[in-house]
Amino acid sequence: MNESEAACKRTFGKRDGALLVKSVSALDVAKGDVVGGVDILVVDGTIEAVGANLSAPREALVVSGAGLFALPGLIDLHVHLVWDGGPSPLETMRKDGLAYAAMRGAANAVASLRRGVTTLRDVGSPDDVAVDIARAFDSGLFFGPTVFPLGRIVQPTGGHVPEIGYVANGVGEAIKAVRSIKERGAKGIKMASTGGAYGPEEIGPAVYTFEEMKAIADEAHRLHLKVATHALGAEGIRLSVEAGIDTIEHGAGTPVEVLKEMKRRGTVLIPTLAVYRMLAESEGMIPDEYVEKAKRVAAWHEETFLGAVAEGVPIALGTDAGSPNFGPHPSVNKELETMVRLGMDCESAIAAATCNAASVLGMERSIGKIEAGFVGDMVIVDGNPFENVASLRNIVHVFKRGVLVDGFN
Ligand SMILES: [Zn+2]
């Protein structure tokens, strides 16, 4: 750390110490249970104990949780931090330039933290700037959420959103793309197996061959990175699953036999349901052909999602926050409420946004649960989210590594 970084850390960084939340109802997100009347002690960023009548070190911040509910900090696995969620995020990004886009990304991450999203996986940024945003928080330059950056989206010529892409054709270039993005500091690989709704390309056909997809997946796995793929429509999703890709992003139009295969392999579905509904209702705000494509996706999506729930496919939460016309970051409440409205129970929806999402990041032993030894990332809300997921809008406190996040107090 250099001198200016150290100075900024003193001003904006984590204030080490202890936190005691007294007598709160804690959500056991893995079991779907509520444990009433517990105290939660966090020391130097880590949950030290969860139990009755804990005593706090003298300097601890003591917060009453009486009548309130505590759950682990929320995790959104599909965000575009540099995008603002306005009608034309790509145009805004182009006008802003890269440096400002990165600053906007950091601001969007902080705004997300204030609404209880303590960990974000960025799935597409120009010049891999999400890597730099993540580093600014990790190094203590700014106080913010944990950002898990995937860098640019690996895609072929004629692919989906090349403005935030790494264009690679053929097995050799695809392998080079994985190595380059890893070298830049990404913690995983994002690729696109098909076209998308927001863009001029067709959504249907796979844009990569099976050999290209498999080369990306194999090379990433060899380097101990997981692969997320943007995939819509039966053909591209089937090939992606067979190629061994770890998470299917969006996934609308997955046939039942492919859902069964996902369950067998442990391939995770990250549905991003709310964003396509929003795009499908954006007549006059985004180009008509994009609206038409989004309507088709939204119609496929519900069947896929309910099929995945019925088949027991692992599901984790991602929102596509920052996408056109989706509104300011974060978008987690919209997604959770959409999942529940379509038929998922509140307990499963919250597991998707906490412990299931932590597993996707390979952080299932450090985040996504309120347990001794886990990071002290927590949200305190008024109302039981297992009874009404919209209770997550009633935030009383957010803690990042046991530090009280400003904004509600
Ligand atoms: Zn996306």
Care to describe what's here?
The chain is α/β, with parallel strands linked by helices and 409 residues long. It folds into two domains: 3-73 and 368-404, Urease, subunit C, domain 1 (Roll); 74-360, TIM Barrel (Alpha-Beta Barrel). It has 13 helices and 17 strands. The strands form three sheets. Strands 1, 2, 3, 4, 5, 15, 16 and 17 form an eight-stranded mixed sheet that branches. Strands 10-9-11-12-13-14 form a six-stranded parallel sheet. A three-stranded parallel sheet has the order 6-7-8. Strand 16 and strand 17 (403-404) form a beta hairpin. Helix 3 crosses helix 4 (129-138), helix 8 (256-265) crosses helix 10 (288-311) and helix 9 (273-280) runs antiparallel to helix 10 (288-311). The longest helix has 24 residues, at 288-311. The chain is globular and about 60 Å long. The two termini are 31 Å apart. It binds zinc ion (ZN).
**Strand runs, count:** 17
CATH superfamily of the largest domain: Metal-dependent hydrolases
The computed structural class is alpha/beta
CATH architecture heading of the largest domain: Alpha-Beta Barrel
Total tally of structural domains: 2
Gyration radius (Cα, Å) is 21 Å
Mean pLDDT across all amino acids: 93
What are the segments in which pLDDT stays under 50 over at least 5 consecutive residues? 4-14
Helix content class: 25-40%
Can you write the helix and strand succession as a string?
A: HEEEEEEHHEHEEEHEHEHEHEHHHHHEEE
Biggest sheet overview? 8 strands, mixed
Supply the number of helical segments.
Answer: 13
The set of bound ligands, ions and cofactors reads: zinc ion
Instruction: Tell me the distance between the termini.
Output: 31 Å
CATH T-level topology of the largest domain: TIM Barrel
- CATH class annotation of the largest domain: Alpha Beta
Strand content: 15-25%
